[in-house]
Design goal:
Blueprint: H1 4-13, H2 19-31, E1 35-41, E2 47-50, E3 61-62, H3 67-74, E4 78-82, E5 87-96, E6 99-109, H4 117-137, H5 143-147, H6 155-163, E7 168-171, E8 174-181, E9 189-195, E10 199-207, H7 211-230, H8 235-250, E11 256-264, E12 269-275, E13 279-284, E14 287-290, E15 310-313, E16 319-323, H9 325-328, H10 340-349, H11 358-370, E17 379-386, H12 391-394
Antiparallel strand pairs: 1-2, 1-6, 2-3, 4-5, 5-6, 7-8, 8-17, 9-10, 10-11, 11-12, 12-15, 13-14, 13-16, 16-17
Helix pairs in contact: 1-2, 1-4, 2-4, 6-7, 7-8
Length: about 400
Amino acid sequence: MDRPSAVERTLREAAPHEIFDVLRSLMERRFHARSVELLMADYAMTRLQPIEALPRTLQPLPVHESAPGRAFGAQEQHCVYDGSESTITVHMPVSVRGDRLGVLSVTLPAGADGVAADVLDELQQCADALAHEVVVAERDTDVFLQARRAERLTLAAEMQWQLLPGRSCARPEYSLGAQLEPAYAIFGDSFDWSASADDLYVMVSNGMGEGIDAALLTNLAVNALRNARRAGLDLSDQAYLADQAIYGQHRGDRHLSTLLLRFHLPTGDVEIIDAGSPHVWRLRAGAVEMIELEAQMPLGMFEDTAYVPQRFAVEPGDRLLFISDGVYDALSPGGEKYSVRALARSINSTRLLPASQVPRAMLQELLGHRGAGPAADDSLVMCLDWHGRPRRELGDQPSGAST
């Protein structure tokens, strides 16, 4: 019998482009599945694309108003009974550490009592194993990346998407979600994050220029920041070295507006550098407010710029939103800017959604204001929900440690 541990081992041994075919064969044997389908979320997070007939997939399904989309949005199994066929289709989220990749749909013969709980649990473990293998396989095959494309990416967008860490992630202390638009033709906006045992680093940037020039500038900045972070440097030195890398390449002719943050996970203390950045909003206890920061020079504008972090604290239940100027500067067909008041309403109207869904929902509201025409600039929304470190972990701290 192919238990989940055996499934994981079999997937690891399969060729990267064949892992889904291998899993489908295993599930057909183990569960007598009549069909097994993997649907990948597209770059715009509006469609679920079946993996078949690559490089073009079969007819996509909407994330909203579809049974697989319900599992994708709720990140829970969703079962659909078909009496005419005497089958049950189990739709399961395919996700890794909060990063939503797609949905695995398995159609089984319907028993008198539906699907047993232990079978549902085993099916989800198979979906989880597939998710991990897809992330690894994308280093060595284009199969899954091709399946995510509802249309062709521009070269600049290709560069930007390959640079990103994911579109959502979660740990006990926080949940993160981010989205870029236009998804298939983004310019210079970008984001990055990385966590260790006690620290979460977040970067949000608004690159200067358009197309390849903007993508190259953002690639230089993000990799310079990663290089400094991985060398163990503090936030000020990370900003300084990235600033020097950009200035050394462009001599002040090009620069990057950037927001850098370090969250101390045990306490919620935050260091932040506002280098000509996107704006930060906070939703706390139902109140929406912009966090006022001391603006410093964008990265790469001048030689030897010194950056000084500011500090604030987050509390359990806080929601932070990082929003690029492509949102604020978006014009309606009549030439009206998207107002701060409209943005505050959007933040409030999405307050019940999980962090992973907020950016897509807010950008959809922005599209309603801007209309269906081409965007003049790309837009970025990142949402961070702060939960705080669980008390059982805080209890291991020495007496007198901040909580």
